[in-house]
Amino acid sequence: MTLPLHLQAITELAAQLAAKKISAVELTSAVIARTRATEPRVHAFNSSDEATALAQAAASDVRRAAGQSCGPLDGIPIGLKDVIAVKDQPLTASSKMLAKFVSPYDATVTTKLKNAGAVLHGRLNCDEFAMGSSTENSAFGPTSNPWDLARVPGGSSGGSAAALAAGSAIATLGSDTGGSIRQPASFCGVVGLKPTYGLVSRFGLIAYASSLDQIGPFARTVEDAAIVLGAIAGHDERDSTSFKTAIPDYRAELAARRGPWRIGIPKEYFGAGLDPEIGAAVEQAIAFYKKLGCEIREVSLPHTQYCLDTYYIIATAEASSNLARYDGVRYGHRSAQAKDIVDLYFQSRAEGFGAEVKRRIILGTYVLSSGYYDAFYLRAQKVRTLIRQDFLNAYQEVDALLTPTSPIPAFKLGEKSDPLAMYLCDIYTIGVNLAGLPAISVPCGFTKTNLPIGLQLIGQPYQEANLLALAQAYERGHEWNAKHPNL
Amino acid sequence: MSSAPQLNIDHVAKLARLALTPEEKAQFAAQLGSVLHHIEQLAKVDVAGVEPSAHAFAVHNVWQDDVARPGLTVADALRNAPAQRENMIAVPKVVE
Question: Cβ contacts (< 8 Å) between B60 and chain A: which residues?
């Protein structure tokens, strides 16, 4: 039985487009129809511009007919998290603050996807300003998990994960500051890749915590993720933290890199709080790699227990600074109640930001404030050095690390009302951001209640090609991604 | 690190230019109290002689040639302004 177009991989669709068995307009129309059918239940989109998407698809068909196709992404509908700028489209960060904002320019990743011929389909829901682990913090309402509509899709890039799982996009982009690509990928049963810090330009990404933020792909297969990564990676002079490195052909490298790899199992990632079904699925993945001939070695990342605290100091400090720009003056929400210019700042921010954003601004302002800077912020930056050193020490003896992506499967909407309980969802993903490393979540099974489970593989800096090959070796031995939610 | 950090929510909200309702103040103070209690454990880490990391990869000044290039047009720059007048952003009176 052939899958409907909206559930196929980029590689399969690109082959059919190249053979002119389908057109980009046909494909985009199928994805739009699927989006219309599922959105009332899933709510993965903040907005979509069907006419523009269909026009881009038509242009792709014209290029192909003229023999000028741009490659495997030409004509493929890709959805972008609503923190990535697309010229002349809304850019809300799922916040009331930017509810009416229309982007005057393209993010670098957007330009690159357009140059690759992709059809940009929709602005995808997320936690407000990418702050959250469930997509419940959106000012426009939560997104549901396509595998169980009563559950969250994860976050903050929950719309990106849910849209892909639902078949409302063929691939999507998200951003990952503490796990915001990998955790929703694991909750929704798709592949999610957070690249090395600096590999993908952040120009045109709404800033949350600038030293941690990275844009990355969600895809149905590791090969699809490699294709999208290849399209968006590379140095950009408009992001001074972007790294000058040659970008390999990640897709071609998949075939070239065959292992066997030395895989480290950080013992701190298998402690209390890990759901037993997830633990068992990850143990089976370890056994699989062993059978492939990989060397499995237990390693220690001794500062793991400090990752969460370090993250919530550094991320909120950076956020409090980054979000100072939303003052009601140049763009964004302006209060109609303000008495004077200073009151305008206070009131516009009070009205424009949601509760979690306010909490993080308060916490970040506090840890940077006079008298607390050394005790909190500076100390956290030093612990960050130790956390990073833990990873680099482990890489003296192994090529990659293997962990669960999340300690728990998708939880119910409204289940985690306490902020600290929500923050604890990120314990396996945040160390990677603090250390700037690349990491990928790949589907590795389902719970008894049919919720997806994710396996996290963590690579060495700028070694995405190795990481993707390692992930694909697992994917090839399993068929988890052949299963789709019953929507 | 001080033991039992006190978060003066009024002071911090003022620094953050954020007006909070009494309900928000009470709720955030309680919630952030438990977060700060958790964060307290960082005091246990021996950081003597450890350099702070602002980034995972050392980033130094990145220079570009000072060349004028086309930027946003006035219309694009003002497109999202909450209020504008004569190609400028309008704000409440600043000087009495």
Answer: none
